[in-house]
Amino acid sequence: MTETPHPLYATHADTLARALTAITERAYWSAFPESPSPRVYGETAAAEGEAAYRSYLDADFPLDQPGTQGRVATEASPFGFDLGVRYPHGDLDAMIAAATAALPSWRDAGPQARAGVCLEILARLHRHIFELANAVHATSGQAFVMAFQAGGAHALDRALEAIAYAYAEMTRHPGSAEWEKPAGKGDPLRMVKTFHVVPRGVALVIGCNTFPTWNSYPGLFASLVTGNPVVVKPHPGAVLPLAITVRYAREVLAEAGFDPNLVLLAAEEPGEKLATTLALRPEVRIIDFTGSTEYGDWLENNARQASVYTEKAGVNTIVIDSTDDFAGMCRNIGFSLTLYSGQMCTTPQNILIPAAGIDTDQGHKTFDEVTAGIAGVVGKLTGDPARAVELTGAIVNDGVLGRLDEVAGVGEVVLASRTVAHPTYADAVVRTPAIVRLGADDAQTYGREWFGPISFTISTDSTAHSLEILRKTVGAQGALTAAVYATDEKVLDAAEAAALDAGVHLSCNLTGGVFVNQSAAFSDFHASGANAAANAALTDGAYVANRFRVVQSRRHI
Amino acid sequence: MTETPHPLYATHADTLARALTAITERAYWSAFPESPSPRVYGETAAAEGEAAYRSYLDADFPLDQPGTQGRVATEASPFGFDLGVRYPHGDLDAMIAAATAALPSWRDAGPQARAGVCLEILARLHRHIFELANAVHATSGQAFVMAFQAGGAHALDRALEAIAYAYAEMTRHPGSAEWEKPAGKGDPLRMVKTFHVVPRGVALVIGCNTFPTWNSYPGLFASLVTGNPVVVKPHPGAVLPLAITVRYAREVLAEAGFDPNLVLLAAEEPGEKLATTLALRPEVRIIDFTGSTEYGDWLENNARQASVYTEKAGVNTIVIDSTDDFAGMCRNIGFSLTLYSGQMCTTPQNILIPAAGIDTDQGHKTFDEVTAGIAGVVGKLTGDPARAVELTGAIVNDGVLGRLDEVAGVGEVVLASRTVAHPTYADAVVRTPAIVRLGADDAQTYGREWFGPISFTISTDSTAHSLEILRKTVGAQGALTAAVYATDEKVLDAAEAAALDAGVHLSCNLTGGVFVNQSAAFSDFHASGANAAANAALTDGAYVANRFRVVQSRRHI
């Protein structure tokens, strides 16, 4: 630690310092501008990024990895075209061996050098943010602006947040310390102690189809900066954003004199079950996963040699008791349901409303009037196809379509899902949100996740009953988000108590420009790890602390 | 966090602040004096503590817990007498229910109040340190001074260290934060966010027979201060030290207006398998365990609802290459083998020496001369029974005696274990260390732990070969400690590289008053979590960060 800092650490020290402050304050901060405007990114950035993205299509992806034996191309865009990008496909043993061989020198480089290199990778990715955004847009089905923000700027912010937590954790005590213990009348005992940060082993990141970068970056960079080589196993439907990530990460690593095999892409044929094969390798000691509860639970129960971080399914819940801004409430909820056609892990599903209706600034509103208010906003937001698709994007897979069919039969359909013709992509699969009315007794329906543009308005006996249902369903199935609308502080307090018991983050009275399905890096924690929807939060101390160990040596001075 | 601090927080704020500094510096610091001298603790403390200890013998232990249905008395001292202390024994459902009911108000009290109460418990225990020391002495078989230090002062230091790490983790960001995001030309988005520390559930601490307080306190206090009620399941052979701990913890909790059922004692009949029953309860979400590899692995594999922290067996190793202080080296190693007759989890077992001998300040020493040097020190330290027992203490159980019998047949006995008559306790079971010579090929013998006063001098081809054996055996079985003796920096570097690869803490050239089996709170990490001997270190960020979650709520300002 007394040596000259690594040049890339020096380059990024100010950014890292600001990020370290941000995680202690958890107030507003962002390092990567979220507006794709030419005023921010320059007049040519958008076109250059799109061209770079297009150059990948129907071609071999430029990645020189050990063990490559062939190519795989697996991506069909929700917007209705095949990407045709051909990724290296190969020998897992060679990849694991290369990753393992890369570990010692990366470990010995120390926290500063690793942080500098990781921040340089973020800077490089940021320079290619339009390229990334196009890739996220095409593979996830997100509208472009959302892909730019969630898949580009916000993903980079979350990566930086994870690096900051990990750096803080690695450096919470010095690299070496002198110890001098008084020894009565004799000379004191004096020792120097060296504390080495030692990584756990090879880390595996298992990406998802909907947020290939945002959900993968925290784990990828938390593992990498703490010294672990990372194997990235993308979803076969969303390889390109992570392939681009791996490409620039390897480029930066090589330029900085490190082994590029610290970051590897493990693309697969559909049905190859590469995640399962990798997850059970003894060399793999850390796994980050986003996806189904079933597979997340399988990983937790079977990849016993690894620390496993999972984000799974849940039943996100809104409790409506009363509001002093009925129009704002309906606008806010309706927007949340429409954004990315409900395909966010944070989209509300269960909307609990007293059967007797609620008090509002517009007087008493019946249950049906509240439902109609929300449905009306969704209808308005999705009425014009050209504007609709910029909010909804496209449907990511057939599973969502199947649930949309199924849900029409489980209750009274308050708002039917519609097919929208995409003005640009003729074969895009676009659907508007469905809202179905249920009773409190229909827990066998609303008590599990219906991933996609599906939500339920559920009539309850009272707000107390609604909170009981929240405690019960979130307690059993977990949730990433909860919200409450109430004008009475006592009701807000009761909702907060229920949220604490269920271990779910709560948003209160959102009627403006903040939505329950959005979480801000450096301020909001995403997931809590305190319920069944996730076993960890992005991003906090617990998320990073187990990715390395401290091994000390000591000797007398 | 804006309210008046809890009075107990105010009382102990300076101590906590000093401890928080200590964990960032990892230099020398101690809060609890380790000398039992009357000059430190007063003229009457020793006699009063012993009297308090004696008042427990052959009597009902004063503990008023829910669910008590009878009493159990299970403790036979290694010094040859039954303690006859009768502990409450009862209904687990009632205990778990009481612990669960105590959680919400303890959670809602917040980090400051909980830290204040926990530090008051430590202060109360410190006031009763002689009582504790007598209890540890009688149940573990440690000599009195060691029981006072390891079981009293050092255990309290480790508890404080765990509290400091947990407090730092809980307060690394504020309890609430204002977030203001610029919104172009419009008004900024403004929210206030509250971050609640939410405990995981009921915590279980499974104590061991040899270090009932030292090994239990970090987990106990890390869990308690982060909001989790704690059920303490002591080893049936060492109940009293933890019963005293639970007694005073409950006393302080009740005085401070909290539910005393936040800390409960679960004493058991031998063979009752209470740890297993408790470990599988769904309410139990954190488990701390010290003991056998077999049972620790069982916990990790079966108590899947809980975060499990284990310290298990390992093969502690010394590599001897050369020394510039042959006499000091032999004294240091010989003392380490003798202390508590080798019944520390940190006692060296495998001493790797080149068959061709080593260079020393006394000229070349053959393998046999090195072995004889160490054996000679052990013989001298244990020659006089009265002095011997103040180092060795007594043998904790029949398993150790069985291994002593067995080991005599596995190689050439260089130093035979002897029976020593204890000058005070006629029925005490006292044995001196055995040293057995093996070859590098005898890995089936030295490759596993022989817990007790058993060590092996193992002849190797070279120091490089010794390091290869260290890598292999520690890599496979784990170790809590390793040491090297070498005069050449290159050899020390090679040993450090091997220690990093094996994930074991290394002590270099100990020839004075620091011993490889000792670790200093606030400076040395105990275990690393980086090899099979333990899945966590005492005490670091990773050890505390998963004992709670952060659940947030947010609303517009």
Automatic annotation (TrEMBL), chains A, B:
GO molecular function: L-glutamate gamma-semialdehyde dehydrogenase activity
Gene Ontology terms describing biological process: L-proline catabolic process to L-glutamate
PANTHER family given in the database record: DELTA-1-PYRROLINE-5-CARBOXYLATE DEHYDROGENASE 1, ISOFORM A-RELATED, DELTA-1-PYRROLINE-5-CARBOXYLATE DEHYDROGENASE 2, ISOFORM A-RELATED
Oxidoreductase listed as a keyword: yes
Top-level taxon of origin: Bacteria
GO cellular component: cytoplasmic side of plasma membrane
Annotated protein name in UniProt: Phenylacetic acid degradation protein paaN
Lineage, top ranks: Bacteria, Bacillati, Actinomycetota, Actinomycetes, Micromonosporales
This protein's UniProt keywords: NAD, Oxidoreductase
Entry-linked SUPFAM superfamilies: ALDH-like (SSF53720)
Protein biosynthesis recorded as keyword: no
InterPro entries: Ald_DH/histidinol_DH, Ald_DH_C, Ald_DH_N, Aldehyde_DH_dom, PaaN_2, Proline_metab_enzyme
Domain Aldehyde dehydrogenase, first and last residues per copy: 91-531
NCBIfam families named in the record: PaaN_2
